[in-house]
Fold this sequence. Notes:
Chain A is of the alpha+beta class. Helix content of chain A is 72%, strand content 8%.
Amino acid sequence: MNAWLARHLQTLVGSLGRLSQQPIATALTVLVMGIALALPACLDVLVRNAQAAGGSWDRALDVSVYLKQSVDADSAARLADKLRQRSDVKAVQLIKADEALQEFREHSGFGEALAALSNNPLPHTLVVTPAENGASPTALATLRDELGKLSEVEVVQLDTDWVQRYLAMLDTVRRLVTMVAVLLAVGVVVIVGNTIRLDIQNRRDEIEVTKLVGGSDAFVRRPFLYCGVWYGLGGGLLAWLVVTVAVALLAGPVQRIAGLYGSTFNLSGLGFVGGIELLALGVVLGWLGSFAAATRHLRAVEPR
Amino acid sequence: MNATAVAQPMIRFQSVAKRYPNGREALSNLTLDVAAGEMVFLTGHSGAGKSTLLKLLALIERPTRGSLIVNGQNLATITRRKIPAYRRQLGMVFQDHKLLADRSIFDNVSLPLVVANTPPRDIGKRVRAALDQVGLLKYEQAKPIELSTGEQQRVGLARAVVTKPPLLIADEPTGNLDPDLSLEVMNIFKRFQEVGVTVLIASHNVQLIEQFNARRLHLEGGRLLEQSTDGASSLFDPTRLLDQAGVKQDSAS
């Protein structure tokens, strides 16, 4: 077991040494892989940020609940308390009829006309902010229907069209990113596979001699698999770097835009876990590409 | 060792024929035995089938007809997956020595041990023993290019014997060497035979092999023409077979 482990470690380091003997070819392969991995990673970061931004616009998802005229302020406050208990509700704000009238009077320009009214025509209103898990279109529709059935409620208003459009758009983009990612992943596998195929051709003599002295297929294949793993790791690291730099360059302008919209939204990068995932993805794809190429092409290299 | 084991030759060709896909018949109905511990020269012009015979032994090629038994194993039963394990029982020496130019002498010689998963602490010892046997211990860290042709061939020989195989086969091992070096290399082969290794050498250098007291198999057009000289009757001489078996047994113990 120890000898086996030592052998693998030796091959792992040995294959790195091999790659460093052809620094330019290796760098080019790693560069191509890095770019191919960085593109979907950047798009993924973009979508995640768009989702987060959507989350910070959650005021747009608020549900306005207009109570019946007959409901007094105390009942309205009790109802607000009751709604705050719901798991799909994050917050409930009570706007009393008097406050609403006051605000309306100040901002609407109908101040004079309103002053002529003998009593307040506005009802008490609850502004219900859905919880994160309640922000999907179906959850919002359920919330709206349930609120509408309450005896105190006159009308529930929710601009679900807007929400649905936004989420549908995000869904399309996300699917697009997945497709691009799958295509580029296939590309990475092919790039590694092709590089390994050329490497096998260049090392024909070595492979033949190794087979002649009794090297098994697995033994002959091992250094090529480790080469693929190194390519993947290198490509993953480069992609991580590209994403980090891109996010750093965009962070300033994005914050300015968000500031203009009165938001404190911040562009977030891959994060440590995301980076590790990217490295793992690179390693897996590199291994896959080298495995496919080595299994296919090493069979053909037999001593003559 | 019982009587049947003694009678078991190291190599047995039985009505073996080899026809290549292009239709050329390289070997026709070849039947021959090589006893354990024997040293045999394989002679003949190029194209006579010497290389094909050696390739069949190394399982680089498969016979079209007939059966081939090496060291008690019928080669027809050895599947592709089992070829590496089979080849580890074989030491092979080539005319162009087939050393890896980018690796040190030590790494070249240790390759058969490495592929056989030999524990690392044993490798150094055995590589040095093999290099010592061919007189090249001091070149351990050199690259093949730094050595003379004769020395390179001796490194190839060290690589072939480092796993202590029971059978050593060589294809024109002195083909690129001048007469002095050729004799030197042949003497090393002879020394391995003397400690019980079965040695089969393809060579067309008649003057060289006449200096050795060994059986000669002469191939012509894929047929065995003669089993000549002083060793000719050895195959059918039970006392000599017993002697050779005895040699092997001694060396093994």
